[in-house]
Sequence to fold (709 residues):
Amino acid sequence: MAEDQNKNVASRNVPPFFGDAQVDLETAKRLDKFLEQRRRVLNLEKRLEIVDDAISVVEDLYITKIGESGDPLEGLRTLQRELKERVDAGANNYAGKGGPDWLREDDLEFHAEMIRAFTGLRDLHTGYVPPPPFDKAVAFLPFEVEACWEGGERKYIVSNVYKKLPWYNLPKDFERGVEVIRWGEDPMAKAVEMSGDKTSGANAATKLSLGLDRMTAVPLARARCPLDWGVKLTYRTMPGEGQAEEKETEEPVPWYVATIQSEDPEVGRRNETWRALGQGLDDGREAVRQLRRTVHQQEGQAWLPERAKPADRKLVSNVRADKVLEMPEHCEASIVTPYAGDNARSGEEYGYIRIRSFKVANHRSYVRKFARLVAQMPLNGIILDVRDNPGGLILAAERLLQIFTPEYIKPQEMVFRNTGLSRKVIKLVPEYRWRGPDQAPKRPGRGKPRHYSKPAPISSEILCNNVGQHYYGPVVLITNALSYSATELFAAGFKKYEIGKVLGTEKKTGGGRSNVVTRSTLWKNFEHAKRAFGTLKDAAAAQGEKPQDWLREPKWPLKLERPLDTDLRVTIRGVLSDGGKLHNGGVTRDFPHRMTRADVLEDNKDLLKTAADLLKELKKERSPCQLRETSCYKEGDTIVARIKTGNIDILKLFLDQENKARVTAHVANGVHPYEIRGWDAGKGKLLRLEGYSDDNGTTPVATRKIRLQ
Fold:
C-alpha cells in the first residue's frame, strides 16, 4: 500500500489553489496616507437615508428578534434623531464644526458609529459595510501572532514575519518564535481582551480569538480603522546562545492598507445570484484570509509554511494513471506521518486536508475534486482541519458530508422571521420561494402568533446525496472558535451523522449557523424581476393579450427605493434548536487540545499527534471498509463490473433508485466480478453498491455510486 501511495505523491511545494493574487500589495498605502486620499464623503441627507434603511432592515428582516441579542436600534435611532435635527435646521450638505464627532465634515466617525451600533448583536454575519475604498480594504501589520499554552499560561507568539515587504524593516531579532509581552502600554492579555470586546464574537472564545486576529489584520469593511497609525511592541527575544531579553521596538510598527481587487461572486451574471443568496460567511475573516494568502505567496511560502518539518508531508499529486489531481479550491492536502512521542515517528501515514474556506465558484466541480482527493488518502484515517474557516457557500459545505458516510444526508433546515418585510422579500426572490415547501412565513392567525416560518433547507437534498461515499476509514475534524457559519453547518452534520470525532482547540465554534444576504444582492434580484416582468408584459402585448393574473409588477420592499453607496449584511435565515428558539451557539468539541509552541512554530506537531491518536482509537472501534470498482463497463444491455471489497460480508447492487437489489452476494475480501443484464440506457444511469458487515443486511457500512455512461 505504501508503494502505491509513493506513486501518488510529489515533493512539497506551494499548493495549486493560490491562483492569481487577489490583493494588490504593490499599491498598499500607510494608514494615514490611505485616509488622506480623495473619496466621496456622504452628506447629511445620505447619512440619514442609510440610517433609516438600516433601522427598517434590523427591525423587520434580521432573524433574531431584538431583545434576544444586542440591540443596535438604540444607537441607530440616536443617530437618526440627531441627523434629522441637523437636516431640519437647514444645515448645508456637509456638517460644520461642533456637535458629535460623527457630524463633522469627514464621515469617518459616522462609519465608525454605524459599525459600533451593530457590534452589540454579537453576530459576525450582520453589519454595516462602508462605501469605497473601505469596503475592500484590509489594514495589516507585517507579522502574525498566535496564542499557545506553556506551563498553564496563555502566551502570544509571533508565528510569521513578512520579510519581503519593502515598507518597513522590523528589528533583526524580531523573528518567528519571539513572545509579544506588551501591546503599546498594555499587557498582551489585556490588549487581546480589549480588542475582543470591540468585535462581534458570539462567545468568549470567539471574542478572544477574533480580538487577537484583528490586532494584526483589520478588515475595514467590518471593523473600525485602527486609532493610531502604528503600534509599539515589547517582546521577548529567542534565547539563542545567550539569555532571552525583553526589548521594545524603537518606533511604532506602521499599519498599511491593501485593497482586495478580485470581484466578489455576488457581483455578475444573474445565474450566479443564487450563490450570493446561499452564503454563510464571515466576510471580514474571508478578506483577512485572502490578504494573508497573497502575502504568503509573495514570501514564497506554502500556506502552511514548511517550518521545522515535524511530520513528513507529501503533497498528493495524481488521481489515477497519468491524470494530475486538481486540488479543490481553498484546500491543501498532504499525507503526514506524525510524531508518536520522544521525537520518534509513528511510521503510520494519515491523510491531512486543510479546508481554508467554502467560498467556492462552482460547488459541482469542488465536490467532484474533493471526492477524487479523499479516495487517494490512506485508510488509516483522514484529518480534516477547518480551523479559521470563515464559511462560504452553504451548499458546498453540506454536500461534502456524503463523501464520508453511507447515511442519507438531510441538509440543515432554516427559518425566516415572520414579519411583513420578510414576506415581501420572499415574494421578491424566486430562490427563497422555491427552496422548500411552505418556506414563506404565514401570517399570524388566531391564537399564538408564529415568530418564524416553517423550517426548510437551503441546500438541495438531491445534490447532498448524488455523489455518495468515497472514503471508508476513520475521520477526525479539527475546529476552533474561528470556524464559522457554513463551516459550522458542516461540523454539525459531521457530528449528527457520526462520521468521526471533533477535536477542538476551543470548546465551541464561532456560533453563527445561519444564512446572510446583502442589501445589494436583494437590489440585483429586484432589478432582474423588473426586467423579467417587462419582458413578459411586452410579449403579452405583442400577442394582443392581457398579462396573466399571476403576473404582478415587483415592488421594492425596503423604504429607500434605490441602491446606496454603502451596504448592509443581514442574517435572514437561522437554525432553530429543539426548544424552538434560534440556535446561536457553536458546535461543541468531543475532545480538547491546547495549542502548544510546537503547534505554532513546528507546523501543528502536537495537534497532529493528538489527532492521530484519536484516529487509532476510532480504527479500533470500527475497522475501515473498502468498496470500489476496479472496472465497470457495458456490453449491449449488460453491465459488467469488478468490485473490490474489504471488511464487508454482504454486497448488494442496485440500479438507480430501485428498492430491490439486482445482485445480493456474500463476499470475502478481494475483487469480485458481476453482471447485470437487461440494462436500459434510457432509464438506468446509476449503479449503487451497498456493503453490510452482518448477515442481517439492515444498515449499510459502506456505499458507492457509479455513473453509467
Observations:
- The mean pLDDT is 82.
- The chain is about 25% helix and 25% strand.
- The radius of gyration is 28 Å.
